[in-house]
Q: What sequence folds into this?
Protein backbone atom coordinates (compact mmCIF):
# COMPACT_ATOMS: atom_id res chain seq x y z
CA UNK A 1 0.00 0.00 0.00
CA UNK A 2 1.29 3.44 -0.91
CA UNK A 3 2.53 5.45 2.06
CA UNK A 4 0.91 8.64 0.80
CA UNK A 5 -2.70 9.03 -0.25
CA UNK A 6 -3.61 12.03 -2.43
CA UNK A 7 -6.43 14.05 -0.88
CA UNK A 8 -8.12 16.58 -3.21
CA UNK A 9 -8.31 19.06 -0.33
CA UNK A 10 -5.10 18.46 1.65
CA UNK A 11 -2.65 17.13 -0.94
CA UNK A 12 -0.58 13.98 -0.42
CA UNK A 13 -1.02 12.83 3.19
CA UNK A 14 0.20 9.78 5.17
CA UNK A 15 -2.05 6.74 4.79
CA UNK A 16 -2.46 6.50 8.58
CA UNK A 17 -4.61 9.67 8.55
CA UNK A 18 -7.31 7.82 6.61
CA UNK A 19 -9.96 5.25 7.51
CA UNK A 20 -11.03 2.72 4.88
CA UNK A 21 -14.76 2.09 4.55
CA UNK A 22 -14.72 -0.28 1.58
CA UNK A 23 -16.31 -0.62 -1.85
CA UNK A 24 -17.68 2.65 -3.25
CA UNK A 25 -21.14 1.37 -4.05
CA UNK A 26 -24.26 3.38 -4.79
CA UNK A 27 -26.88 2.95 -2.07
CA UNK A 28 -30.13 1.60 -3.55
CA UNK A 29 -33.41 3.48 -3.21
CA UNK A 30 -35.10 2.69 0.14
CA UNK A 31 -38.10 1.05 -1.52
CA UNK A 32 -36.13 -1.09 -3.94
CA UNK A 33 -36.44 -4.88 -3.85
CA UNK A 34 -34.79 -7.13 -1.25
CA UNK A 35 -32.34 -8.62 -3.74
CA UNK A 36 -30.79 -5.20 -4.47
CA UNK A 37 -30.35 -4.55 -0.77
CA UNK A 38 -28.79 -7.95 -0.10
CA UNK A 39 -26.46 -7.27 -3.00
CA UNK A 40 -25.54 -3.83 -1.65
CA UNK A 41 -25.01 -4.87 1.97
CA UNK A 42 -23.40 -8.31 1.58
CA UNK A 43 -22.10 -9.10 -1.89
CA UNK A 44 -18.83 -7.74 -3.27
CA UNK A 45 -17.10 -7.77 -6.64
CA UNK A 46 -13.80 -7.99 -4.70
CA UNK A 47 -11.74 -7.38 -7.87
CA UNK A 48 -8.07 -8.16 -8.30
CA UNK A 49 -7.02 -4.88 -9.91
CA UNK A 50 -8.81 -1.53 -10.24
CA UNK A 51 -11.09 -0.84 -7.27
CA UNK A 52 -13.15 2.19 -6.22
CA UNK A 53 -13.31 2.64 -2.47
CA UNK A 54 -14.62 5.09 0.09
CA UNK A 55 -11.83 6.47 2.27
CA UNK A 56 -12.44 8.94 5.10
CA UNK A 57 -9.76 11.54 5.79
CA UNK A 58 -10.31 11.09 9.53
CA UNK A 59 -7.24 13.00 10.75
CA UNK A 60 -7.40 15.66 8.04
CA UNK A 61 -10.27 17.45 6.33
CA UNK A 62 -12.75 14.77 7.49
CA UNK A 63 -14.21 14.54 4.01
CA UNK A 64 -15.28 11.26 2.42
CA UNK A 65 -13.24 10.50 -0.68
CA UNK A 66 -13.50 8.01 -3.52
CA UNK A 67 -10.03 6.53 -3.98
CA UNK A 68 -9.32 4.47 -7.08
CA UNK A 69 -6.65 1.92 -6.28
CA UNK A 70 -5.19 -1.32 -7.63
CA UNK A 71 -5.65 -4.19 -5.17
CA UNK A 72 -2.81 -6.23 -6.69
CA UNK A 73 -0.12 -3.52 -6.96
CA UNK A 74 -1.49 -1.11 -4.29
CA UNK A 75 -0.97 1.84 -6.67
CA UNK A 76 -3.41 4.71 -6.31
CA UNK A 77 -4.77 5.97 -9.62
CA UNK A 78 -6.74 8.98 -8.38
CA UNK A 79 -8.97 10.31 -5.65
CA UNK A 80 -11.81 12.80 -5.51
CA UNK A 81 -14.28 14.13 -2.99
CA UNK A 82 -17.18 11.69 -2.70
CA UNK A 83 -19.62 14.59 -3.16
CA UNK A 84 -18.19 15.32 -6.60
CA UNK A 85 -18.25 11.67 -7.56
CA UNK A 86 -22.01 11.70 -7.05
CA UNK A 87 -21.62 9.55 -3.93
CA UNK A 88 -23.03 11.46 -1.00
CA UNK A 89 -24.18 8.49 1.08
CA UNK A 90 -20.82 7.26 2.39
CA UNK A 91 -21.67 6.96 6.05
CA UNK A 92 -20.16 4.49 8.48
CA UNK B 1 -5.80 -49.75 0.68
CA UNK B 2 -5.27 -49.08 -3.04
CA UNK B 3 -1.96 -47.50 -3.89
CA UNK B 4 -0.77 -45.92 -7.13
CA UNK B 5 2.72 -45.23 -8.45
CA UNK B 6 5.58 -45.29 -5.99
CA UNK B 7 4.75 -46.81 -2.65
CA UNK B 8 5.50 -44.36 0.14
CA UNK B 9 6.86 -46.09 3.20
CA UNK B 10 5.22 -45.62 6.56
CA UNK B 11 7.40 -43.44 8.71
CA UNK B 12 8.66 -44.99 11.94
CA UNK B 13 11.64 -44.82 14.29
CA UNK B 14 13.03 -47.87 12.48
CA UNK B 15 12.77 -46.20 9.05
CA UNK B 16 14.69 -43.19 10.40
CA UNK B 17 17.40 -45.53 11.73
CA UNK B 18 17.73 -47.50 8.48
CA UNK B 19 17.76 -44.39 6.29
CA UNK B 20 20.27 -42.74 8.62
CA UNK B 21 22.60 -45.75 8.23
CA UNK B 22 22.28 -45.43 4.46
CA UNK B 23 23.20 -41.74 4.56
CA UNK B 24 19.62 -40.59 4.05
CA UNK B 25 19.92 -41.31 0.32
CA UNK B 26 17.03 -43.75 0.12
CA UNK B 27 14.09 -41.58 1.12
CA UNK B 28 11.46 -41.47 -1.60
CA UNK B 29 9.28 -38.42 -2.41
CA UNK B 30 6.28 -38.14 -0.08
CA UNK B 31 3.87 -37.63 -2.97
CA UNK B 32 3.82 -38.12 -6.75
CA UNK B 33 3.88 -35.48 -9.49
CA UNK B 34 1.13 -36.94 -11.71
CA UNK B 35 -0.06 -35.70 -15.08
CA UNK B 36 -3.72 -34.68 -14.97
CA UNK B 37 -6.18 -37.37 -16.04
CA UNK B 38 -9.01 -36.35 -18.43
CA UNK B 39 -11.70 -36.80 -15.77
CA UNK B 40 -12.05 -37.06 -11.98
CA UNK B 41 -15.04 -37.77 -9.76
CA UNK B 42 -14.13 -34.76 -7.62
CA UNK B 43 -11.81 -31.83 -8.31
CA UNK B 44 -10.72 -29.55 -5.49
CA UNK B 45 -9.50 -26.11 -6.54
CA UNK B 46 -6.75 -24.98 -4.17
CA UNK B 47 -3.90 -27.05 -2.74
CA UNK B 48 -3.72 -25.33 0.60
CA UNK B 49 -4.42 -26.85 4.00
CA UNK B 50 -8.18 -27.01 3.50
CA UNK B 51 -8.04 -28.39 -0.06
CA UNK B 52 -5.52 -31.09 0.85
CA UNK B 53 -7.43 -32.01 4.02
CA UNK B 54 -10.63 -32.27 1.98
CA UNK B 55 -8.96 -34.66 -0.48
CA UNK B 56 -7.46 -36.67 2.39
CA UNK B 57 -10.79 -37.18 4.17
CA UNK B 58 -12.63 -37.81 0.90
CA UNK B 59 -10.28 -40.71 0.26
CA UNK B 60 -9.88 -41.96 3.82
CA UNK B 61 -13.29 -41.46 5.39
CA UNK B 62 -15.68 -41.37 2.44
CA UNK B 63 -14.01 -43.81 0.02
CA UNK B 64 -13.78 -41.38 -2.92
CA UNK B 65 -10.28 -41.72 -4.34
CA UNK B 66 -10.66 -40.54 -7.95
CA UNK B 67 -9.88 -37.02 -6.81
CA UNK B 68 -7.57 -34.23 -8.01
CA UNK B 69 -6.33 -31.23 -6.08
CA UNK B 70 -5.37 -28.40 -8.44
CA UNK B 71 -2.88 -25.85 -7.11
CA UNK B 72 -1.75 -22.85 -9.14
CA UNK B 73 1.64 -22.72 -7.38
CA UNK B 74 3.19 -25.36 -5.09
CA UNK B 75 1.20 -26.88 -2.26
CA UNK B 76 1.32 -24.95 0.97
CA UNK B 77 2.48 -21.76 -0.78
CA UNK B 78 -0.53 -19.82 0.48
CA UNK B 79 -2.01 -19.25 3.91
CA UNK B 80 -1.22 -22.68 5.37
CA UNK B 81 2.42 -21.61 5.32
CA UNK B 82 1.71 -17.98 6.26
CA UNK B 83 -0.10 -18.09 9.58
CA UNK B 84 0.84 -17.92 13.26
CA UNK B 85 0.11 -21.67 13.72
CA UNK B 86 -2.41 -21.31 16.56
CA UNK B 87 -5.11 -23.90 17.26
CA UNK B 88 -8.00 -23.34 19.69
CA UNK B 89 -11.76 -23.72 19.99
CA UNK B 90 -12.66 -20.83 22.31
CA UNK B 91 -15.66 -19.61 20.35
CA UNK B 92 -18.84 -18.10 21.75
CA UNK B 93 -21.61 -18.83 19.26
CA UNK B 94 -23.40 -22.16 18.78
CA UNK B 95 -22.94 -21.82 15.00
CA UNK B 96 -19.17 -21.84 15.45
CA UNK B 97 -18.19 -23.61 18.65
CA UNK B 98 -19.02 -27.28 17.87
CA UNK B 99 -17.22 -26.99 14.54
CA UNK B 100 -14.00 -25.62 16.03
CA UNK B 101 -14.17 -28.18 18.83
CA UNK B 102 -14.43 -30.94 16.20
CA UNK B 103 -11.36 -29.40 14.61
CA UNK B 104 -9.42 -29.40 17.89
CA UNK B 105 -10.36 -33.05 18.49
CA UNK B 106 -9.08 -33.90 15.01
CA UNK B 107 -5.83 -32.01 15.73
CA UNK B 108 -5.42 -34.12 18.87
CA UNK B 109 -5.35 -37.33 16.86
CA UNK B 110 -3.96 -35.99 13.60
CA UNK B 111 -0.36 -37.19 13.75
CA UNK B 112 -1.36 -40.80 14.44
CA UNK B 113 -4.06 -40.49 11.80
CA UNK B 114 -1.80 -39.41 8.93
CA UNK B 115 1.51 -40.81 10.26
CA UNK B 116 3.37 -37.53 10.03
CA UNK B 117 4.94 -35.37 12.71
CA UNK B 118 3.01 -32.09 12.72
CA UNK B 119 4.42 -31.06 16.11
CA UNK B 120 0.96 -30.54 17.62
CA UNK B 121 1.69 -28.83 20.94
CA UNK B 122 -1.20 -28.26 23.35
CA UNK B 123 0.58 -25.58 25.31
CA UNK B 124 -2.56 -23.55 26.09
CA UNK B 125 -4.08 -20.36 24.71
CA UNK B 126 -4.51 -17.51 27.20
CA UNK B 127 -6.71 -14.52 26.29
CA UNK B 128 -5.99 -11.61 28.64
CA UNK B 129 -8.63 -9.16 29.81
CA UNK B 130 -8.00 -5.61 30.94
CA UNK B 131 -11.23 -4.30 32.47
CA UNK B 132 -14.24 -5.43 34.50
CA UNK B 133 -16.41 -5.32 31.41
CA UNK B 134 -13.99 -7.48 29.50
CA UNK B 135 -13.85 -9.95 32.38
CA UNK B 136 -17.64 -10.28 32.13
CA UNK B 137 -17.42 -10.87 28.38
CA UNK B 138 -14.71 -13.51 28.78
CA UNK B 139 -16.61 -15.20 31.62
CA UNK B 140 -19.61 -15.42 29.31
CA UNK B 141 -17.46 -16.91 26.55
CA UNK B 142 -15.87 -19.38 28.95
CA UNK B 143 -19.31 -20.45 30.18
CA UNK B 144 -20.55 -20.83 26.59
CA UNK B 145 -17.54 -23.04 25.86
CA UNK B 146 -18.17 -25.21 28.92
CA UNK B 147 -21.83 -25.60 27.96
CA UNK B 148 -20.53 -27.00 24.66
CA UNK B 149 -18.23 -29.38 26.54
CA UNK B 150 -15.07 -27.40 25.77
CA UNK B 151 -12.43 -26.76 28.42
CA UNK B 152 -12.13 -23.19 29.71
CA UNK B 153 -10.54 -21.74 32.84
CA UNK B 154 -10.83 -18.20 34.11
CA UNK B 155 -7.54 -17.08 35.67
CA UNK B 156 -7.28 -14.12 38.00
CA UNK B 157 -4.45 -11.63 37.91
CA UNK B 158 -2.22 -13.59 40.30
CA UNK B 159 -2.68 -16.87 38.46
CA UNK B 160 -1.63 -15.12 35.23
CA UNK B 161 1.32 -13.50 37.01
CA UNK B 162 2.50 -16.87 38.28
CA UNK B 163 2.48 -18.25 34.77
CA UNK B 164 3.79 -15.22 32.85
CA UNK B 165 5.58 -12.93 35.32
CA UNK B 166 7.13 -10.78 32.58
CA UNK B 167 3.83 -9.24 31.38
CA UNK B 168 3.16 -5.57 32.11
CA UNK B 169 0.44 -6.06 34.75
CA UNK B 170 0.34 -2.39 35.73
CA UNK B 171 0.28 -0.86 32.28
CA UNK B 172 -1.24 2.60 32.89
CA UNK B 173 -3.88 2.27 30.19
CA UNK B 174 -4.40 -1.49 29.96
CA UNK B 175 -3.66 -3.18 33.31
CA UNK B 176 -4.04 -6.97 33.21
CA UNK B 177 -7.01 -8.18 35.29
CA UNK B 178 -6.75 -11.87 34.36
CA UNK B 179 -7.29 -14.21 31.45
CA UNK B 180 -9.40 -16.92 29.89
CA UNK B 181 -7.31 -20.04 29.39
CA UNK B 182 -8.00 -22.93 27.05
CA UNK B 183 -5.43 -25.55 28.06
CA UNK B 184 -6.09 -27.76 25.03
CA UNK B 185 -5.27 -24.95 22.60
CA UNK B 186 -1.75 -24.53 21.30
CA UNK B 187 0.37 -24.49 18.16
CA UNK B 188 1.16 -26.80 15.24
CA UNK B 189 3.98 -26.92 12.69
CA UNK B 190 1.94 -25.45 9.83
CA UNK B 191 3.95 -26.66 6.80
CA UNK B 192 3.86 -30.21 8.11
CA UNK B 193 0.06 -30.05 8.09
CA UNK B 194 0.08 -29.45 4.33
CA UNK B 195 2.71 -32.14 3.79
CA UNK B 196 1.02 -34.71 6.02
CA UNK B 197 -2.34 -34.29 4.33
CA UNK B 198 -0.73 -34.27 0.87
CA UNK B 199 1.13 -37.49 1.58
CA UNK B 200 -1.91 -39.16 3.10
CA UNK B 201 -4.13 -38.15 0.19
CA UNK B 202 -1.55 -39.14 -2.43
CA UNK B 203 -1.01 -42.62 -0.99
CA UNK B 204 -4.77 -43.22 -1.25
CA UNK B 205 -4.78 -42.34 -4.93
CA UNK B 206 -5.50 -38.59 -4.96
CA UNK B 207 -3.66 -36.69 -7.72
CA UNK B 208 -2.05 -33.52 -6.39
CA UNK B 209 -1.39 -31.39 -9.45
CA UNK B 210 0.84 -28.41 -8.78
CA UNK B 211 1.52 -25.43 -11.04
CA UNK B 212 -1.94 -25.89 -12.52
CA UNK B 213 -4.05 -22.74 -12.38
CA UNK B 214 -7.78 -22.90 -12.99
CA UNK B 215 -8.72 -20.30 -15.63
CA UNK B 216 -12.35 -21.19 -16.26
CA UNK B 217 -15.25 -23.34 -15.10
CA UNK B 218 -17.09 -25.10 -17.92
CA UNK B 219 -20.85 -25.40 -17.43
CA UNK B 220 -23.53 -27.20 -19.43
CA UNK B 221 -27.25 -27.23 -18.62
CA UNK B 222 -26.74 -25.76 -15.17
CA UNK B 223 -24.08 -28.16 -14.00
CA UNK B 224 -20.30 -28.01 -13.95
CA UNK B 225 -18.61 -30.38 -16.42
CA UNK B 226 -15.00 -29.50 -15.68
CA UNK B 227 -12.37 -26.81 -15.41
CA UNK B 228 -10.14 -25.04 -17.91
CA UNK B 229 -6.60 -24.91 -16.56
CA UNK B 230 -3.13 -23.84 -17.63
CA UNK B 231 -2.57 -27.58 -18.27
CA UNK B 232 -5.68 -28.07 -20.38
CA UNK B 233 -9.30 -29.04 -19.74
CA UNK B 234 -10.02 -31.47 -16.90
CA UNK B 235 -13.49 -32.94 -16.52
CA UNK B 236 -15.13 -33.61 -13.16
CA UNK B 237 -18.26 -34.99 -11.55
CA UNK B 238 -18.20 -32.54 -8.65
CA UNK B 239 -16.19 -29.37 -8.15
CA UNK B 240 -15.15 -28.04 -4.75
CA UNK B 241 -13.73 -24.53 -4.42
CA UNK B 242 -11.23 -24.10 -1.62
CA UNK B 243 -9.25 -21.10 -2.84
CA UNK B 244 -9.03 -18.92 0.32
CA UNK B 245 -8.07 -15.35 -0.62
CA UNK B 246 -8.79 -16.02 -4.30
CA UNK B 247 -12.28 -17.44 -3.68
CA UNK B 248 -14.02 -14.46 -5.31
CA UNK B 249 -11.90 -14.82 -8.43
CA UNK B 250 -12.59 -18.55 -8.82
CA UNK B 251 -16.30 -18.27 -7.95
CA UNK B 252 -16.66 -15.51 -10.54
CA UNK B 253 -15.74 -18.09 -13.21
CA UNK B 254 -19.00 -19.83 -12.31
CA UNK B 255 -21.01 -16.60 -12.26
CA UNK B 256 -21.09 -16.48 -8.47
CA UNK B 257 -20.69 -13.23 -6.48
CA UNK B 258 -19.60 -13.92 -2.91
CA UNK B 259 -20.08 -12.14 0.42
CA UNK B 260 -16.30 -11.92 0.69
CA UNK B 261 -13.54 -9.32 0.52
CA UNK B 262 -9.85 -10.19 0.25
CA UNK B 263 -7.61 -8.51 2.82
CA UNK B 264 -3.96 -8.78 3.76
CA UNK B 265 -2.93 -10.01 7.24
CA UNK B 266 0.68 -9.86 8.35
CA UNK B 267 2.64 -12.13 10.66
CA UNK B 268 6.09 -11.78 12.18
CA UNK B 269 8.96 -13.82 13.58
CA UNK B 270 11.72 -12.53 15.86
CA UNK B 271 15.27 -13.76 16.23
CA UNK B 272 15.65 -16.99 18.21
CA UNK B 273 15.53 -16.61 21.98
CA UNK B 274 15.88 -18.95 24.94
CA UNK B 275 12.57 -20.47 26.17
CA UNK B 276 10.49 -17.52 27.27
CA UNK B 277 6.77 -17.84 26.51
CA UNK B 278 5.37 -21.34 27.10
CA UNK B 279 1.83 -20.78 25.80
CA UNK B 280 -0.06 -18.61 23.31
CA UNK B 281 -0.90 -15.21 24.84
CA UNK B 282 -3.28 -12.65 23.39
CA UNK B 283 -3.53 -8.98 24.30
CA UNK B 284 -7.17 -8.10 24.95
CA UNK B 285 -6.84 -4.33 24.67
CA UNK B 286 -5.90 -4.50 21.02
CA UNK B 287 -5.43 -7.42 18.71
CA UNK B 288 -2.10 -9.08 19.31
CA UNK B 289 -1.16 -12.74 19.74
CA UNK B 290 2.23 -14.27 20.43
CA UNK B 291 3.82 -17.65 20.99
CA UNK B 292 7.34 -19.05 20.82
CA UNK B 293 8.32 -21.58 18.20
CA UNK B 294 10.40 -24.65 19.01
CA UNK B 295 13.35 -22.94 17.32
CA UNK B 296 12.99 -20.07 19.78
CA UNK B 297 11.61 -17.37 17.51
CA UNK B 298 8.66 -15.37 18.77
CA UNK B 299 5.77 -15.76 16.33
CA UNK B 300 3.23 -12.96 16.50
CA UNK B 301 0.59 -11.02 14.63
CA UNK B 302 -2.16 -8.45 14.91
CA UNK B 303 -4.98 -6.98 12.86
CA UNK B 304 -5.59 -6.77 9.14
CA UNK B 305 -4.00 -3.85 7.32
CA UNK B 306 -7.55 -2.68 6.62
CA UNK B 307 -7.75 -2.30 2.86
CA UNK B 308 -8.67 -4.83 0.15
CA UNK B 309 -5.57 -6.49 -1.23
CA UNK B 310 -4.38 -9.40 -3.34
CA UNK B 311 -0.70 -8.60 -2.72
CA UNK B 312 0.92 -10.96 -0.23
CA UNK B 313 2.68 -8.13 1.54
CA UNK B 314 1.60 -5.54 4.08
CA UNK B 315 2.19 -2.00 5.22
CA UNK B 316 4.81 -0.63 7.61
CA UNK B 317 2.22 1.26 9.68
CA UNK B 318 0.72 -2.09 10.69
CA UNK B 319 4.17 -3.45 11.53
CA UNK B 320 4.71 -0.50 13.85
CA UNK B 321 1.27 -0.88 15.44
CA UNK B 322 1.74 -4.60 16.10
CA UNK B 323 5.19 -3.98 17.59
CA UNK B 324 3.71 -1.31 19.87
CA UNK B 325 1.01 -3.68 21.05
CA UNK B 326 3.61 -6.32 21.77
CA UNK B 327 5.67 -3.90 23.77
CA UNK B 328 2.63 -2.69 25.74
CA UNK B 329 2.04 -6.31 26.75
CA UNK B 330 5.64 -7.50 27.18
CA UNK B 331 8.03 -4.57 27.81
CA UNK B 332 11.08 -6.83 27.51
CA UNK B 333 10.36 -7.22 23.79
CA UNK B 334 11.73 -3.73 23.19
CA UNK B 335 15.21 -4.94 22.25
CA UNK B 336 14.18 -8.07 20.39
CA UNK B 337 14.98 -7.92 16.70
CA UNK B 338 12.37 -8.86 14.16
CA UNK B 339 13.63 -11.42 11.69
CA UNK B 340 10.89 -11.78 9.11
CA UNK B 341 7.43 -10.56 8.27
CA UNK B 342 5.05 -11.72 5.61
CA UNK B 343 1.48 -11.27 4.44
CA UNK B 344 -1.31 -13.65 3.52
CA UNK B 345 -4.58 -12.95 1.73
CA UNK B 346 -7.61 -13.59 3.91
CA UNK B 347 -11.04 -14.37 2.50
CA UNK B 348 -12.92 -12.07 4.89
CA UNK B 349 -16.63 -12.88 4.96
CA UNK B 350 -19.28 -10.28 5.78
CA UNK B 351 -20.00 -11.68 9.26
CA UNK B 352 -16.57 -13.03 10.16
CA UNK B 353 -17.59 -16.70 9.89
CA UNK B 354 -16.92 -19.27 7.17
CA UNK B 355 -19.07 -20.79 4.43
CA UNK B 356 -19.17 -24.53 3.67
CA UNK B 357 -22.13 -25.04 1.38
CA UNK B 358 -23.63 -25.96 -1.97
CA UNK B 359 -24.07 -23.22 -4.55
CA UNK B 360 -26.56 -22.26 -7.26
CA UNK B 361 -25.03 -24.97 -9.48
CA UNK B 362 -25.92 -28.54 -8.53
CA UNK B 363 -22.42 -29.99 -8.45
CA UNK B 364 -20.45 -26.91 -7.42
CA UNK B 365 -19.50 -26.64 -3.73
CA UNK B 366 -17.91 -23.78 -1.84
CA UNK B 367 -15.50 -23.68 1.10
CA UNK B 368 -14.54 -20.06 1.81
CA UNK B 369 -14.76 -17.05 4.10
CA UNK B 370 -12.23 -18.25 6.67
CA UNK B 371 -11.21 -14.73 7.66
CA UNK B 372 -8.18 -15.26 9.85
CA UNK B 373 -9.46 -18.37 11.55
CA UNK B 374 -8.55 -20.69 8.73
CA UNK B 375 -5.52 -22.54 10.05
CA UNK B 376 -7.06 -23.90 13.25
CA UNK B 377 -10.07 -24.99 11.21
CA UNK B 378 -8.06 -27.03 8.70
CA UNK B 379 -8.94 -30.60 9.83
CA UNK B 380 -12.66 -29.95 10.46
CA UNK B 381 -12.97 -27.84 7.33
CA UNK B 382 -11.52 -30.67 5.27
CA UNK B 383 -13.63 -33.28 7.03
CA UNK B 384 -16.91 -31.34 6.73
CA UNK B 385 -16.26 -30.25 3.14
CA UNK B 386 -15.51 -33.87 2.24
CA UNK B 387 -18.76 -34.86 3.99
CA UNK B 388 -20.66 -32.31 1.91
CA UNK B 389 -18.99 -33.37 -1.35
CA UNK B 390 -19.52 -37.07 -0.68
CA UNK B 391 -23.04 -37.03 0.76
CA UNK B 392 -24.49 -33.78 -0.60
CA UNK B 393 -25.65 -32.71 2.87
CA UNK B 394 -24.00 -30.50 5.46
CA UNK B 395 -22.12 -32.06 8.35
CA UNK B 396 -23.96 -31.41 11.60
CA UNK B 397 -21.34 -28.91 12.83
CA UNK B 398 -21.53 -26.76 9.67
CA UNK B 399 -25.27 -26.60 9.25
CA UNK B 400 -25.30 -22.86 10.06
CA UNK B 401 -22.36 -22.04 7.78
CA UNK B 402 -24.62 -21.54 4.78
CA UNK B 403 -24.05 -19.30 1.80
CA UNK B 404 -27.58 -17.94 1.91
CA UNK B 405 -27.50 -17.03 5.61
CA UNK B 406 -26.79 -13.39 4.73
CA UNK B 407 -29.99 -12.87 2.76
CA UNK B 408 -31.97 -14.92 5.30
CA UNK B 409 -30.63 -12.84 8.18
CA UNK B 410 -28.98 -15.72 10.09
CA UNK B 411 -25.52 -14.27 10.45
CA UNK B 412 -22.84 -15.81 12.68
CA UNK B 413 -21.24 -12.58 13.83
CA UNK B 414 -18.86 -13.58 16.65
CA UNK B 415 -17.72 -9.97 17.23
CA UNK B 416 -20.99 -8.18 16.50
CA UNK B 417 -19.29 -5.93 13.95
CA UNK B 418 -21.80 -6.04 11.09
CA UNK B 419 -21.07 -6.36 7.38
CA UNK B 420 -17.68 -4.63 7.52
CA UNK B 421 -15.00 -7.22 6.73
CA UNK B 422 -11.98 -5.04 7.52
CA UNK B 423 -12.95 -4.84 11.21
CA UNK B 424 -13.76 -8.52 11.77
A:
Amino acid sequence: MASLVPCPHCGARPKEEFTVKGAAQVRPAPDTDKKSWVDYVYLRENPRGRYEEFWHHTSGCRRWLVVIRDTATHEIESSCDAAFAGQTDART
Amino acid sequence: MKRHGTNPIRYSALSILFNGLRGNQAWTPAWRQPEPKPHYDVIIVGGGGHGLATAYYLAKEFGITNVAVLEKSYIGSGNVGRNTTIIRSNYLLPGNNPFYELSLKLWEGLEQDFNFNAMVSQRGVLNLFHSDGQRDAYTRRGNAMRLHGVDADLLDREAVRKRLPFLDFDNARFPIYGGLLQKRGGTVRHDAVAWGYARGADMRGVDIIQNCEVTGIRRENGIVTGVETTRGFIGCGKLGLSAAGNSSRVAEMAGLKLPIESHVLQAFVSEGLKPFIDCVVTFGAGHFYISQSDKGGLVFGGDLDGYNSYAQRGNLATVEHVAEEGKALIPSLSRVRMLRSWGGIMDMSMDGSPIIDRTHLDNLYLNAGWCYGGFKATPASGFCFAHLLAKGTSHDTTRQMRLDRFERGYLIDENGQGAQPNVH
